[in-house]
Amino acid sequence: MASKEDPMTQTTSQPSQPVTSGEARVNAIPTPDIKHPELDRPVIYINGEFKPKHEANISVYDHGLLYGDGIFEGIRVYQGRIFKCGQHMDRLWRSAEALRLEIPVSREEMIAIQRRCIELNEVVDGYIRLVVTRGVGTLGLNPYACPEPGIICIADQISLYPPEMYEKGMTVCIAERPRVPIKCLDPRVKSLNYLNNIMAKCEAIDRGLLEAVMLNTDGFVSECTGDNIFAIKDGVLFTPPSDAGILEGITRRFVMDTVAPACGYHVEERLFKPIELIEADEVFLTGSAAEMIAVTAIVAQDPAGHDVEHVIGADKTVKAEGPITRELRTKFREIVTGDNVPED
Ligand SMILES: Cc1ncc(COP(=O)(O)O)c(C=O)c1O
Hints:
Layout: H1 22-27, H2 37-40, E1 44-46, E2 49-51, H3 63-67, E3 70-78, E4 81-82, H4 85-98, H5 107-120, E5 126-133, E6 150-156, H6 163-168, E7 170-174, H7 195-206, E8 212-215, E9 221-224, E10 228-233, E11 236-239, H8 250-262, E12 267-269, H9 274-278, E13 282-287, E14 291-301, E15 307-311, H10 323-336
Parallel strand pairs: 7-8, 7-14, 11-12
Antiparallel strand pairs: 1-2, 1-6, 3-4, 3-5, 5-6, 8-9, 10-11, 10-13, 13-14, 14-15
Helix pairs in contact: 8-10
The structure holds pyridoxal-5'-phosphate (PLP).
């Protein structure tokens, strides 16, 4: 991290410091000895230092903890490369700007931090969690009382859904709780405040499910609690637009711009109600952690408030991943296991 010098203590007689790049600064940070791998790994970057896991702690006065005041990115690593790194950095900086949070390192330095974390923890295929907190302040809400935002980078493994679910598909429910409206807190901001999503996720867990579809306050489909959603009808793919109130997923964009066109499909962005999901030929979710996964049934409440399970697709007797989802998922895997994992 850039050292902050007090201008009052600087003297003109000191030799000027050589200008170092963000990457060189990160590479110069000492790394800890690992004495107990099960406790110490992964080595975590936290506020300018690399610490063993059990020593990577933040202050109880950090507003990221006190108020969920901060932002994050969940980023995939494929074959040691940071998948769509450029787009994740763009989104992180956009989120910061929306929350008037000044990220205290350069973009180059932030990328170097991630690369060093991957390297130190020997992550080849894995996941990076990058967090920028408002930093340490007072017990009041005032974000301007927090002089220095905090940065945390964790490179580890993630498995969101069991492997067999990728073959068989998953059942999701329609959450009763709507997505926070854009005017209140724009879901495009990937903030540390995920309570809207967590409470909707509880609705899924209460039903023995792993994911819930969230509707906006006008009753249109927005996204799931941790994934974007797509549907397919008569060979046409469609997904809710940004103004439905969604996180603009990097995986969603990759499917729209690269995976679907490579398979000869175009994706429409348009508003739609849950009935179109239920009547779709195929439904699938996208996310950095989930990649692409088929939805094969949707649980929705009938007018009497009873849960009804709707199997997706023409054949209501079998829950199975549809052919277009399979084709797209195969292409997706082909790209991320190929020689040119995109870092743009
Ligand atoms: C609410 C929400 N929607 C969508 C996504 C998918 O976004 P991405 O593809 O960038 O991981 C996420 C991922 O964390 C999410 O939390």
